[in-house]
Amino acid sequence: MKKKWSLLLMAGLAALVLAACGQKQAETKTPDTLTVGLEGTYAPYSYRQNGKLTGFEVDLAKETAKRMGLKKTKFVTTGWDSLIAGLNSNNYDVVFNNMAENPDRQKKFRFATPYVYSKSIVITKKDGDIKSAKDLKGKKVAEGTGTDNWNNAKKLGANPITSPDFQTSMDMIDQGRVAGAVNSREAFEYWKKSHSNTDLTYFEIPTSEVKASKIAPMMNKKNAKLQAKMDKAIQSERKDGTLKRLSMKYFGTNITDK
C-alpha cells in the first residue's frame, strides 16, 4: 500500500513539472528565447552594418528580453509584406519594426507599451510643387503596402504606390515616378546623413491632420502573459533612461516621449 501511494505521489509531481514546462513554453516560441520578427533594412530602426544586424529596435529587443528574464534573443528578418503573416504563422513571438498601433491592428493583435511616438512627414523634392499636406491630393506617393504610412497617405487624399523599402521610395521620388512619400521624420533624417547631396527635403504634417503614431511591440492576441512581462520591462527601460539613451544613440534626438 505504501509503495502504491509513493508511485501516485511521483506521478503527481511529474504532472506538475510537465504542466509548469508547458506554461513556460507557451509564453515564447522557444524556451528562454525571445524570437523577434523585423525587416532589418529600415535604418536606424534595424539594419546591417558590416553584415551584422544592428539598430535601435535590435538593441531595444535584446534589452527587453534580458529584463523579461529570457537568456537569448533571436532575430528573424523578412520583408514588410511577410512580416505580419509570419506573426500569424508563429514564426516569431513579437514584431519590433516601427509598428504603429491603429484600430485595425488592435482588433487582430496585442500591443505592449509604446516605446516611440513618431511624427509623420512628407518627403518631396525641394523644387517640387508639394508645399503642404493638402497638395498631396491625387498625387502618387511611394509607401509600403499595409503600413500606417500607406493609410495616412490615403487619408490625405494621395494615391499610394507600392514600395518595398525606404531607399526605393527615395529613388522613386528622385526619378519622378512619384511626387513624394509619407514617412517618419527619424527615418529621413538618418537617411540624409549618408546622402548629403540629395535634393529631397521634408515638412511635418500637422498633428491636427495626422496624429503622432504610437510605436509598440506587436504580438498575437493569445500572448497575454508575454505582453505583461514586456510591459513591465519597457516601463523599467523608460524609467531608468534606457529608452532615451538608445534613441540618442541612433537618432541623435529623443523620440521616445509623447
Structure description:
This protein has nine helices and 14 strands. The strands form six sheets. It has a three-stranded parallel beta sheet with strand order 4-1-5. It has 258 residues and is of the alpha/beta class. The termini are far apart. Residues 33-254 form the Solute-binding protein family 3/N-terminal domain.
Summed up, what is this model?
Keywords: Signal. The protein contains nine helices and 14 strands.
Protein topology:
Blueprint: H1 2-27, E1 33-38, E2 47-49, E3 52-54, H2 56-67, E4 72-77, H3 80-88, E5 94-95, H4 103-108, E6 109-111, E7 116-118, E8 120-125, E9 140-143, H5 148-155, E10 159-162, H6 166-174, E11 180-184, H7 185-193, E12 200-204, E13 213-215, E14 218-220, H8 224-239, H9 242-251
Parallel strand pairs: 1-4, 1-5, 9-10
Antiparallel strand pairs: 2-3, 6-14, 7-13, 8-11, 8-12
Quote the average pLDDT: 89
The residue ranges in which pLDDT falls below 50 over 5 or more consecutive positions are 16-25
Q: Can you count the beta strands?
A: 14
Shape: globular
